């Protein structure tokens, strides 16, 4: 019996060799990448945002989003280059809370040369893990502003200001009267003292957390004290004085920073700097988070809806007015406004609109102007010029509103005096020609349309008639000329 051996496959050695070569190539590629990663570590990343202007809801949102981006990119350091005269307390506290909870070290750098970190900026500087300034910059003047006015501080009793009765003064100036006056002054200062003490305790806690000068921090709040960059460095208010961001990164390299997640050492030498530019969101918030813009948006919104109600079906005034109204209300929600002021503004605008419909001879409109101006005055009182409405602005806006209503009213009155040019009423007095005469109905051509007419006289085709009255869809006419 003949035994047949299996025939060897000619493909097997080739396939095995190709697989072996592929495996060796992959292994070599992985080894090269691993070597590169070990030999050349990734360059550290520093994320920077630049804030130039008041600390507002827009700038607070910009800083917070920059912090979130730095945490997402696992940046080595987040730098706030700051130049601000101050800002809103609510926005400042939002920024401070995010800095305290940040997983990325935060450095506030007061720059460029000539910049300042006043008021709210001082709080942000104290809250940061690293505080730095450029030469010729300053910080401080962090006293809070009393809402509703700044009362005079209470004067302590001294021999010169002691009750006159104790110094041989007039008999009417009794200690009881002086005590009553002192009690009234103290009551007037209570709210200011509460705000000042709260701010002083807040910045003192930040100074204790970061190991910075507590005495100056409290003096900046209570006495509006300020310091230059060199003075702040000598007094341990800031950690570094640097000419620019590159100089700062060289100085902080190797510094140990305590975070909520633990302690980290900064490696910022030759770091890659990524500057986050303000986007459309920041620009939109900066635009609408302004009391003047918010007020104009509110008025445009109300007038747009008012015009849509007068002319149903136009759509554009109603849609635009509704959008502006929502943007205005959103801006008021961002700003520290008094809702009493908002209510007075709405009342004033409503009264000015009502003046166009009610025969009050200007009384309702004048009341609307007064309510509008008072509402604008009560709307905000922050002590920051950019966030307070001035009387000239309010008066100008109110006068523009009154002028708009006068123009609308004059146009409406003129249109009311004109004869009707459309509808059934327009048929009165119109002339036409009898087109056909039937057994039961007579039709005439009037205005290019065929109307059924009725006349006390007998009509013939071609007669000229004039419309005297309407009876439903039938015109009552008179014959003015017999037909040919």
From TrEMBL:
GO cellular component: membrane
Molecular function terms, GO-annotated: peptidase activity
Domain NfeD integral membrane span(s) in chain numbering: 293-408
Subcellular location: Membrane
Domain NfeD-like C-terminal, chain residue ranges per copy: 425-479
Protein name as annotated: Membrane-bound serine protease (ClpP class)
Biased composition (Low complexity): 151-167
Organism: Eoetvoesiella caeni
Domain NfeD1b N-terminal: start-end pairs: 51-227
Keywords from the UniProt entry: Hydrolase, Membrane, Protease, Transmembrane, Transmembrane helix
Bilayer topology term: Multi-pass membrane protein
InterPro entries per UniProt: ClpP/crotonase-like_dom_sf, Membrane_assoc_protease, NA-bd_OB-fold, NfeD-like_C, NfeD1b_N, NfeD_membrane
GO biological process: proteolysis
Transmembrane segments: 284-306, 313-331, 361-379, 391-413
Region: Disordered, residue numbers: 144-190
């Amino acid at each position: 019996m003949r035994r047949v051996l299996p025939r060897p496959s000619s493909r097997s050695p080739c396939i095995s060799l190709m697989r072996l070569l592929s495996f060796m190539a992959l292994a070599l590629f992985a080894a090269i990448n691993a070597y590169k990663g070990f030999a050349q570590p990734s360059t550290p990343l520093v994320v920077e945002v630049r804030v130039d202007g008041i600390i507002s809801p827009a700038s607070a949102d910009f800083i917070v989003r920059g912090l979130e981006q730095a945490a997402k990119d696992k940046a080595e350091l987040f730098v706030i280059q700051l130049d601000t005269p101050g800002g809103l307390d609510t926005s400042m506290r939002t920024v401070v809370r995010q800095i305290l909870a940040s997983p990325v070290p935060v450095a506030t750098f007061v720059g460029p040369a000539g910049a300042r970190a006043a008021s709210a900026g001082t709080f942000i500087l104290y809250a940061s893990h690293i505080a730095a300034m450029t030469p010729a910059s300053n910080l401080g003047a962090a006293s809070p502003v009393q809402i509703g006015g700044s009362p005079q501080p209470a004067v302590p009793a001294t021999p010169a200001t002691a009750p006159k009765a104790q110094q041989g003064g007039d008999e009417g100036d009794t200690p009881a009267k002086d005590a009553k006056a002192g009690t009234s002054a103290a009551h007037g200062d209570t709210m200011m003292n509460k705000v000042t003490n709260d701010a002083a305790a807040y910045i003192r806690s930040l100074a204790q957390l970061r190991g910075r000068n507590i005495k100056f921090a409290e003096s900046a709040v209570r006495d509006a004290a300020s310091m230059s960059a060199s003075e702040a460095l000598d007094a341990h208010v800031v950690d570094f004085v640097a000419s620019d961001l590159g100089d700062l990164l060289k100085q902080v390299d190797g510094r140990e920073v305590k975070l909520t997640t633990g302690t980290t050492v900064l490696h910022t030498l030759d770091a890659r700097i990524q500057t986050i530019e303000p986007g459309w969101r920041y620009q939109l918030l900066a635009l609408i988070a302004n009391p003047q813009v918010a007020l104009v948006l509110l008025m445009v919104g109300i007038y747009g809806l008012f015009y849509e109600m007068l002319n149903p079906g136009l759509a554009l005034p109603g849609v635009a007015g509704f959008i502006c109204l929502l943007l205005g209300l959103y801006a008021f929600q961002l700003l520290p406004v008094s809702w009493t002021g908002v209510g007075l503004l709405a009342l004033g605008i409503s009264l000015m609109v009502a003046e166009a419909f009610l025969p009050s001879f200007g009384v309702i409109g004048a009341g609307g102007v007064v309510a509008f101006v008072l509402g604008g005055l009560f709307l905000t009182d922050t002590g920051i010029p950019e966030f307070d409405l001035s009387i000239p602005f309010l008066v100008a806006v109110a006068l523009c509103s009154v002028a708009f209503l006068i123009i609308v009213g004059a146009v409406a009155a003129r249109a009311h005096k004109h004869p009707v040019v459309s509808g059934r009423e327009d048929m009165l007095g119109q002339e036409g020609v009898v087109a056909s005469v039937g057994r039961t109905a007579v039709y005439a051509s009037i205005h290019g349309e065929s109307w059924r007419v009725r006349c006390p006289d007998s009509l013939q085709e071609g007669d000229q008639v004039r419309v005297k009255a309407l009876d439903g869809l039938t015109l009552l006419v008179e014959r003015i000329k017999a037909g040919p």
